[in-house]
Design brief:
Strand order of the largest sheet: 3-2-1-4-5
Shape: elongated
Helix content: 55-70%
CATH class of the largest domain: Alpha Beta
Structural class: alpha/beta
CATH topology of the largest domain: Glutaredoxin
Number of strands: 5
CATH architecture of the largest domain: 3-Layer(aba) Sandwich
Distance between the termini: 32 Å
Length: about 350
């Protein structure tokens, strides 16, 4: 996507809002010019004061003007889309209540479909893309290689990943933003599995996006306050290790919603305010002497890595390769283990 598309919105967004604007103008004009037509078509008693219904047509038409103006830059003018989506959500709720009480005929629902329901998905998608563009951490901070990050980026305790991984294997966990229920679930999993991870031969290190004090309090709650952590609000480390921003299905797909309900409500991890880039995907990397032995890149925000298994499988594969190297006197690099 080009900078212009990212800043203003892609062609489908503009086309959607133009279509919505034209539709609203035509529907509003029809109601103003023929205020009793819809009542006759649905078999309803015409209103005593049709001018009130004409006012509704005027309001709908004004929304159409707003959509046409927003079409020039859907991302920048997302509040207009938001107001429109709110109306298209509350309107059907009101109709459903009135129809169930027998105050409106179900035939009236045809207008709800064309005026409201068919716009839910495209308007919601526009708002998603606007939020994505408005919090784009890809534009913040320098672009560096993961090797440089490993060599130069110090933890809150002053040691780099290269220094840490010289002493012992490092299981480097990149977390979601701290308000995400899956970030809290990950911290709970790591707290519970920490001893097994260490017994398997690795030490934990965490990458997060929160403010230092908030991170200290949060990690302390999970008994992880002594773990080396790396603050990365601009997601420089995330980008260096190739962890991208998630697409709609990866962040808000049906499976993610279900897992979020289970983790947030049933298991009590809850949710909190956004801290950092809410679109950034998590991942896990196993480091040895400044090199990557194994990696796990989440396919969705709801993925739940098997940390201990990752360490064990990487070590087993490393031992097998070292044995093969000794027997064949070949040269096998640590990077060959990256896909384990």
């Amino acid at each position: 996507m080009s900078d212009g598309q990212r800043d203003g919105g892609s062609r489908w967004m503009r086309s959607t809002l133009i279509l919505a604007g034209v539709y609203n103008l035509l529907w509003g004009a029809w109601v103003i010019l023929f205020p009793l037509a819809l009542f006759g078509w649905t078999g309803m008693e015409p209103p005593r004061y049709p001018q009130i219904w004409q006012c509704v047509g005027m309001i709908v038409g004004v929304y159409g003007v707003g959509y046409l103006l927003a079409a020039r830059n859907p991302v920048r003018h997302w509040p207009i889309v938001l107001v429109g989506l709110l109306g298209k959500t509350l309107g059907p709720i009101g109709f459903l209540g009135a129809a169930l009480r027998g105050e409106l005929p179900w035939a009236w629902g045809a207008t709800v479909v064309t005026n409201d329901l068919i716009w839910w998905v495209p308007f919601g998608a526009i708002l998603f893309e606007a939020a994505r563009a408005g919090t784009d951490s890809d534009r913040r901070g320098p672009s560096v290689s993961w090797q440089r990050v490993v060599r130069e980026w110090p933890s809150h305790r002053g040691l780099t990943l290269e220094e840490l991984s010289r002493e012992r294997l490092v299981l480097l966990v990149f977390l979601r933003h701290a308000g995400c229920t899956f970030c809290r679930e990950a911290l709970s999993d790591l707290s519970r599995q920490r001893r097994d991870i260490e017994e398997a031969g690795a030490q934990l290190a965490l990458v997060h996006m929160s403010e230092p004090l908030a991170a200290t309090l949060r990690f302390s709650d999970y008994g992880l306050d002594d773990v080396h952590r790396f603050r990365d609000p601009d997601c420089v480390m995330y980008r260096a290790f190739g962890l991208r921003r998630g697409r709609f299905a990866q962040l808000l797909g049906a499976g993610v919603w279900w897992r979020g309900m289970v983790a947030g409500l049933w298991r009590g991890h809850g949710i909190g305010r956004l801290e950092g880039d809410g679109f950034r995907m998590p991942g896990v990397f196993l480091l040895h002497r400044g090199r990557i032995l194994a990696e796990y890149r989440a396919m969705t925000a709801a993925d739940r890595p098997r940390y201990v298994e990752l360490v064990r499988r990487a070590l087993e594969a490393r031992q097998m390769l070292e044995g093969a190297r000794r027997s064949s006197h070949g040269a096998t690099s640590d990077r060959e283990l990256a896909g384990v």
